[in-house]
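Form 12-C: Joint structure prediction
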Amino acid sequence: MTVNKTNQISRQTQPLRPRYYFSGMFEPFLDLLLQHDHVIKHVKKGELLWQPGQPHEKIDCIVSGTLMNYADHENGFRKIISFHGPGSIFPGFHTMDFQIELSLVNEAVTDMEVIEFTKEQFADIFAQNPDLALSVVNWYAMYVNRLLFEVADQEYNSSQVKLANLLYILCRDQGNLEKTPCQVFVTQEELAGLLGLSRVQVTRELGLLRKENIVSASRGIITILDLEKLKSVCSFQTLET
Amino acid sequence: MTVNKTNQISRQTQPLRPRYYFSGMFEPFLDLLLQHDHVIKHVKKGELLWQPGQPHEKIDCIVSGTLMNYADHENGFRKIISFHGPGSIFPGFHTMDFQIELSLVNEAVTDMEVIEFTKEQFADIFAQNPDLALSVVNWYAMYVNRLLFEVADQEYNSSQVKLANLLYILCRDQGNLEKTPCQVFVTQEELAGLLGLSRVQVTRELGLLRKENIVSASRGIITILDLEKLKSVCSFQTLET
DNA sequence: CGACTCATTGACGTAGCTCAAGGTATGTGG
DNA sequence: CCACATACCTTGAGCTACGTCAATGAGTCG
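Section 2 - Result
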């Protein structure tokens, strides 16, 4: 996955679009991070990085593997918020306590290796390295961007457009926009959790996309057959110009 | 408004709840900011801080007045995202370009005075002052918290609960939780924009709350008559324990 | 081969939307 | 101070997108 590693003020050629998968931003700092006090942790697929209901005491920098971050709502819905891969940190570094963090869950979707810091340890590194501090800020900006996309754009789209947007973005997050057909490895239940729709509605909308030969679906895999047709369903905020 | 000005690792007594109105975080740095290159800007009520469609080139630190930040969706809905008052900065400092920022609008809801920096100027201050850098990060964390609240909680609530949550939070944002009756100065159209509901639906839900003597409403003012009853309608994420 | 999890499809209910017609404060110019 | 315009608010009728419930099929794995 290509990631913009800018640490200076820079005008990219294309303004950035939302993403659901974060990676790469802290790779330039891996050596630096390893020089400071830390703990190496290995987490098996399916395990949680820490127990929900606890305040966030640690910051993890991902070396390998992927993490899924979600929240379980009091009336039973599971909202998937983001995925984090190598070179991302989670949760973002800050020095406050938020109620809502107590109900966030972080699950390894593959075996993982992470470098773990306490908030105090990370605060020291943060204070001594303005470049790293800037990356923390840019990490937050990307996270805000994903959330703003949902709050200001997806909220007003039909379930059809929501789904098309998400599939397109997941495709891009994998760096697969060029090669069609592109496979996205995700269950319909996960799609529903990412979109805030019911599983049944996701099935229906996928059915429509399938009828138009835009995608084909099998157990846990969506294949994008016709990216151009898919784009024609997406909303403006999603697409490159 | 009381604001947690923590710049060290600290465990507050109460985990923080979401807020829609941001202020105070950068007040300790006002003198510091004024020592660096800046421009003082005055913006009249109703004017925009910068034109939509432009990349965000500047960072404004608010000295006085209040700003409303919203996005207009391609199919006509206006989503209100946040309000910023004295001691907040807007937009958050970062060094990337995001597509979605182009459609964010920032309108002065009162006459305003702001200290304006270019990204380059702010980047210098950021690099030289770890304390200020930490406040930028904490500012982002609070912003993320407001967005997560909407994405992970409000999304699954009925319009009744959504509205109750919002009224309670607006009340708290003003620091008025103690004194009932508490007045919230907001039109029903703004409530609709904050919640992603139709104006008509907001009227209906307010009507129900009125029947229960929880609120009374007049032109542009909602008065909370019975905070305890209002709390009984709210969802868990909204309330203090 | 039985027991999962994942996907499909139909029947039906409803929350919240749109459209529409009106009512009531606030502000402005004469 | 009145006439008129302009916000803002209220209420009803009807529609529809999406949710729920339920029954069934289709891969996958020990």
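Section 3 - Comments
Chain A is about 35% helix and 20% strand. The mean pLDDT of chain A is 90.
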